[in-house]
Amino acid sequence: MSATEQELNDFRAEVSAWMKDNKPADPGFLLPQTFMEVGDEQQLEFLREWQHKVWSAGYLGMAWPKEYGGGGVDAKYQRIADQEMRRHGVPICFNVIGLGWAGPLINDIGTEAEKARYLRGILSAEDIWCQGFSEPDHGSDLGSARTRAVRDGDEYVINGQKIWTTMGNFAKYMILLARTNPDTERKYDGLSYFLSPMDVPGIETRPIRKITGEYGFTETFFTDARIPADCLMGEEGQGWRIAMQTLQYERGAEAGAAGGLAMVRVTIDDMISQLGDLTRDGAPVLKDPAVRDRLVELIMEEKALSLGDRRAHIAPLCSDYPGSLPLSHKLRATEMTRRMRQFAISLQGAEGGLYVGDPQARQGGFWQRAYFNSFSATIGGGTSQVQANIVAEHVLGLPK
After folding, report:
1. 250 annotated active-site
2. Can you tell me the distance from the alpha carbon of 256 to that of 253, in angstroms, rounded to the nearest whole number?
3. What is the pLDDT of residues 280-295, one digit of tens each?
């Protein structure tokens, strides 16, 4: 065993011990299963304190530059820390849009001033970030964004509306795509990208209640909101290119995320252990041949996703279709997650119709809530239909 391997093993043991000693106790209220379910101040402050604690211990942003609050070490260390967070079942690091999208973008193409201004606050959870891409009536057609940004001296005046703004009501900053030129021949050429403050007059957020009964998304309205001109990232008209780079991070096709858990992950093993005592007609459900057949299919699919993720980091194994695994992972993983959680509900029979708050609900309605929450991941970052088109066009070379 090489010294490097020994160092990584020692580090894993260190992280594991820390997680065991510092995993928070049950707070007595419902915690979000993903960063898209942070609906009230109580949840927010609990998760903010936890993320700050993980970062202070050195287990978040480990591969980000040291001068901006990161650890300045090899990304392998962060992957180990993330694995141990998952294994110990600790709470999520909720500031995902900052940690996974805005932060990597700023690290990659931001100015030194932007890095100094934004990165440390993302890691410490002091500064929450949201995303201003989607708009009403346009669905996944991001290029048709109508929110306007008009230059007025040292400011831009913003007017328009965004929707599905995760944690918009808590955010200090937004990655904002807005139209600076409405007269370009190609609609994509008139868009610009901003690192916009949210605490200026003229920006209003309204929470959206989801099918789970929880909140987490907002509508965001801009009415003559003035933001500093230096919030522009890159040049005017470069917004589409920068937005596409951002979506690469969001969809998992680009490295650079700070780490941490974005959602409570449940595996087939979790489902088997938690639902293994279910019976149907006096016999264990998991001994039913049809159930076992479906279970094996899901186990194979889960294993394939895991192996595909490992393969994606080995270039010679991806030379036939470079980028195919990262580009397709978001589609494959979110759809498999949705189907697995739906299967877990079906195993419960009539009990599957119970929900959070019902005293008879299994595990407090965990699987039902998880199933409803899974739809947000099949929509965010591009719907499954959009993702299928991306794979078809950019991996398989099929026509539009």
Report:
1. yes
2. 10
3. 989 999 999 999 999 9
